[in-house]
Amino acid sequence: MTCRISEETLHEYLDGELEELNVLVLEEHLRTSEDCRIKLEQIKTLSAELDSWAAADMEMPDELDLIGRRVYVESTGKGFTAGDFLKVQAAAVNGPLIFLDHLPGRRVAAKTVKVLSRSIAKTSGSLIKRSYKLAVSRR
After folding, report:
1. What is the largest CA-CA distance in the chain?
2. What is the pLDDT of residue 75?
3. Residues 6 or more apart in contact with residue 19 via CB below 8 angstroms
4. Could you tell me what percentage of the chain is helix, strand and coil, using 3-state DSSP and rounding each to the nearest 5?
5. CA dihedral 93, 96, 99, 100 (to 10 degrees)
6. Distance between CA 118 and CA 57 in Å, rounded?
7. What are 26-39's pLDDT values in tens digits?
């Protein structure tokens, strides 16, 4: 049996964005549709995993900035300036935010952006510290 319940509706249900009547209809449907219950559980699992990532203090490898710089230089043939770094960082943080309001399951999307932003900020801090140390050591 193919259900007409969209994944977007399941996201809205979990986000508390459905009207009361639609909540009642969906909950009744979930009692009889194993496929929809499975989809709902998968969405809940994803949300819980994103929560745990957001709460975790992720360690970035020390070599990450060197790898990124080398990939950039080898792929573009030019050096990586501070301006390039700031443009990439701004695009990585702001790009997902533009679409956030248009996605089903906004809370899951917001958690994803939060995790990514935190990871980017941590990596950026590491890159800035290492770049400063490198610049001071070359004097």
Report:
1. 71
2. 81
3. none
4. 75, 0, 25
5. -90
6. 9
7. 999 999 999 999 99
